[in-house]
Write a structure and sequence with these properties.
Blueprint lengths: L6 E7 L4 E4 L2 E4 L3 H8 L11 E10 L6 H14 L5 E5 L5 H11 L6 E5 L12 H14 L5 E5 L2 E4 L4 E2 L8 E2 L7 E3 L3 E3 L6 H10 L7 H10 L4 E6 L6 H7 L4 E8 L12 H11 L3 E6 L21 E2 L5 H14 L4 H8 L13
Parallel strand pairs: 1-4, 1-5, 5-6, 6-7, 13-14, 14-15, 15-16
Antiparallel strand pairs: 2-3, 7-8, 9-10, 11-12
Helix pairs in contact: 2-3, 2-6, 3-9, 7-8, 9-10
Bound molecules: aspartic acid.
């Protein structure tokens, strides 16, 4: 029998389910049993029924890679008719990357997908794991948020807008350029004006994007290694020689963490660096995001803008969204340089400004 609000918990690893070992914290294989005994749907009318599926191997999220994103997307894709939603238990270190990648890969999905984790394991008496897990389950089972969201410390955020901003506080995630999807306190109030499912479907159709079918990409990736994508952070004194060696023809896309509004050394002051970037832009997508936590790239504001060097604007995207969007457009959709460039500057799933609904 299909239970209408049933949730599938996908346990990928992460601190939330870790235990202390002589080597330090490691994922606990028995965590699903602990959830089953500790959290019972009968205790509270709002608690949905749930099943739990463990990934193999369980990972510290520092070990996550694009193949792991594919696996998670595939599980969700295969189960989307059986469950109202999915709660993904994940390490915090790369959670914002997975949330962003899944946002692109599952674009157009009608189910709730909530990714969560914790700073302190469930196994410790004082922890943030229990609250994050229970609230994610309750939101997933009782509300409609058909997109990939991230729940952490009483905040429900759009996944592709998030970044980890604190290594130790319970309040570890922010969505610097986009408001939370809900007000969460005694009551949970979804901010319906931020729901993007209708808008999203329109954007996807307009941009003629294929809905990702992860299973097909698995076959594809057995034959070829994933396309190379990189991140380059500007700093005073960065050398042209380094950039030349770093951005080779094999690298399909580079996210440049530029200064402020998308600035960097100018042609008149550092012609070698300018030329290195300009040459690289002939074969590689170069996209600028800001090194600042908040705000946006505006490539027309300054003479020192990187626009003349062939760099395009990532607007107010997070680094995580820009990296995973490159991965999605290049490796998943298989687009050429020009098409990737044009889509990188467009809002696809609410990952950048111009989309508030
Ligand atoms: N290293 C851990 C992980 O990302 C940290 C955490 O979960 O908070 O899996």
């Amino acid at each position: 029998m299909t239970v209408l609000n049933k949730v599938l918990i996908i346990y990928t690893g992460g601190t939330i389910g870790m235990m202390q070992t002589p080597k330090g914290y490691e994922p606990d294989q028995n965590f699903p049993d602990k959830i089953r005994t500790d959290i019972s749907p009968i205790e509270d009318a709002q608690m949905p029924e749930f099943d739990i599926l463990s990934m193999d191997p369980l990972l510290d999220s520092s070990n996550m890679n694009p193949q792991n994103w594919d696996k998670i997307a595939k599980i969700i894709d295969e189960n989307r008719r059986k469950y109202k939603g999915f709660v993904i238990l994940h390490g915090t270190d790369t959670m914002a990357y997975t949330a962003s990648a899944l946002g692109f890969m599952l674009s157009g999905i009608n189910n709730n997908v909530i990714i969560t984790g914790s700073q302190v394991p469930f196994s410790r008496l004082r922890n943030d794991a229990r609250e994050n897990l229970i609230s994610s389950l309750i939101i997933c089972g009782n509300y409609s948020i058909p997109e990939v969201a991230l729940y952490f410390n009483n905040k429900l955020l759009r996944g592709c807008r998030t970044t980890k901003t604190d290594a130790s506080a319970f309040d570890a995630f922010e969505s610097p350029n986009f408001p939370p999807l809900a007000d969460i306190g005694v009551d949970i109030n979804l901010k319906r004006q931020w729901s993007y499912s209708i808008h999203l479907k329109k954007e996807l159709i307009q941009n003629k994007l294929k809905r990702t079918k992860p299973i097909e990409y698995f076959r594809h990736e057995k034959q070829k290694t994933p396309d190379e994508i990189a991140v380059l952070k500007l700093f005073p004194g960065i050398s042209a020689r380094f950039v030349e060696h770093f951005i080779t023809e094999e690298v399909k896309g580079v996210v440049i963490e530029a200064y402020g509004a998308g600035n960097g050394p100018t042609k008149s002051v550092n012609p070698e660096l300018f030329t290195a970037l300009k040459n690289a832009s002939e074969h590689t997508v170069l996209i600028a995001v800001t090194q600042c936590l908040r705000g946006s790239v505006h490539l027309d504001s300054y003479a020192a803008s990187l626009k003349a060097a062939g760099v395009i604007s990532g607007h107010d995207m997070t680094l995580e969204a820009a990296v995973t969007k490159l991965y999605y457009l290049i490796s998943k959709q298989g687009y050429n340089l020009e098409k990737v460039k044009s889509l990188m500057e467009k809002n696809l799933i609410g990952e950048m400004e111009s989309s508030t609904n």
